[in-house]
């Protein structure tokens, strides 16, 4: 067996979610799974593709009409300029996009700089490719990377080949303004590294307009995006990787080896989304913001501290003083006693200890139940502490 594969552990977030699903009636606020359905016009486009027998291989990078539609969409939304002939590859979700990009770029001994807390696939992807993840604790800087810290880390870690930037962030929901991105770019432009910018939540922003890092530092940026969150298409597994032609051609080689191409039916659904689904995310975004505000108010009223999310659909809350501070034990006890599933913050790495990640990609009814169950749990914990004291 390949040692780098044997060393990879099954993702804790999936194991915890599987446990929650076995509990009848449990309120599940763990996985970032939109509770909306894929828009009807997109589903119908996929059905037509099947009926018209568009069920054969496509070229590895994706159907040409689709890539043109992606390029036009990204230009209209974010003023990005990617050549559909040479600078875009359609992947099996952003997850495959990260995997293929890491495979194409990294060599043994390289390092990947990952702001932490972070989504859980980035580190194992680096390990698998013989590289070492370098985790940057952002918990003391409002869960953002600051230019001064970035400059120091790059100075002291000359083997860093990739800076992985995810915004709006999973798990914290924080994002970056254009000025903040430009300040980071001023540091990065003087280093021979790639910026892999995971912007899968770009359509779900609340406090300011999303600006893509691909617009700030195009020569060094590999942009990851897709339709899973914006158009409630998680099961369709559609993502895109965009960037300089010379690196995209190498990523496409890995993508071709791994998948040949993504499914033809998904490509026709994606073509419809990018062509006629320009405004589909807006109604969902409005409801997510309402859910964010309701959950934030409920948590704040119980003494939880968390940054107000700029985007995505997560709240990353610090457990109040006076309660169990071991976030894994807190979450396990909460699941057992109240049948409420919340992910421990430490699952997301350094800086996540003592926090909980709430996904509000759930119904308002589930959010209200979550608040009620959490209140009950805290009351019982306080009573238990008084008895033991």
Automatic annotation (TrEMBL):
Residues 27-365 form the Aminotransferase class I/classII large domain. GO terms for molecular function: pyridoxal phosphate binding; transaminase activity. The keyword GTP-binding does not apply. InterPro entries: Aminotransferase_I/II_large (IPR004839), AspAT/PAT-like (IPR050596), PyrdxlP-dep_Trfase (IPR015424), PyrdxlP-dep_Trfase_major (IPR015421), PyrdxlP-dep_Trfase_small (IPR015422). The keyword Coiled coil does not apply. It holds the Pfam family Aminotran_1_2. Its cofactor is pyridoxal 5'-phosphate. Belongs to the class-I pyridoxal-phosphate-dependent aminotransferase family. This is Aromatic amino acid aminotransferase. It comes from Companilactobacillus heilongjiangensis.
